[in-house]
Amino acid sequence: MKTLVFSAKNLKKIYKVGELEVQALRGLDLELFDNEVVVLLGPSGSGKSTLLNILGGLDNPSSGEVFYKDHNLVTSTAKELTQFRRDHVGFVFQFYNLISSLTAEENVQLITDISKNPFTPMEALELVGLSPRATHFPSQLSGGEQQRIAIARAVAKRPDILLCDEPTGALDVQTGKQVLAAILRVNQELGTLVCVITHNAAIAGLADRVIHLADGGIKSIITNSKRMGLDEIQW
Questions:
Q1: Where in the sequence is the domain holding 171, given as residue range(s)?
Q2: Domain assignment of residue 142, yes or no
Q3: In this structure, what CATH number is given to the domain that contains residue 206?
Q4: In Å, how far are 42, 99, 184, 211, 213 from 221, measured between CA atoms?
Q5: How many distinct structural domains can be found in the chain?
Q6: What is the pLDDT of residues 111-145, one digit of tens each?
Q7: CA–CA separation, 217 vs 51, rounded Å?
Q8: Residue at 11 is within a domain
Q9: pLDDT digit string (tens) for 5-33?
Q10: What string of DSSP letters covers 48-109?
Q11: Are strands 37-41 and 209-214 parallel, antiparallel or unpaired?
Q12: Using alpha carbons only, how large is the chain's radius of gyration in Å?
């Protein structure tokens, strides 16, 4: 049986811009489970990033409920949310956010030094196939390599959840495949729930479930009977 990781009910988020109110989420209901790969599809402004930020404890909803297992994120204090992010969540963004003066290994070590039961930096780099580049600085790495270092940093804590916001958005197709292969390996080897935001509908074939968002709500949820392989995707 699958274990419920996230449960969101009647989730709403309203941003105020001066006197204008913008509804980013409109009463969204969602459940996410362990071991699955979920792709969030939708146009800009559909609420994808807002949803990901709320699930990751980076933002609070205006109303509604969000539970991580039996823990209510909406009623959590700032300190509790910080601990939740530190112990359970790995983030991967479109831009790599590496520290230019640190090597690949040292960038990953930033996370392992504050985690309870982490991989070693070299183990995390091996997971994304970049242990030979451990002593290189970001300026000596390609865009795809930098993104894979960012993934290694995100998974070094052995997170229960990996939240990825357009992780291949700034990459060419071949490099994007390498990044996606690293993300899928994390899911397969660690059993991590992986949630990926993308504009690229082709990536949907790699997921267990594809959730289409529009105007702050869920338009449809499609369950794939079998994940496609990277070589089967029509890019």
A1: 34-61+77-232
A2: yes
A3: 3.40.50.300
A4: 12, 38, 20, 5, 9
A5: 1
A6: 999 888 899 999 999 989 999 999 999 999 999 99
A7: 10
A8: no
A9: 999 999 999 999 888 999 999 999 999 99
A10: HHHHHHHHTTSS--SEEEEEETTEESTT--HHHHHHHHHHHEEEE-SS----TTS-HHHHHH
A11: parallel
A12: 17
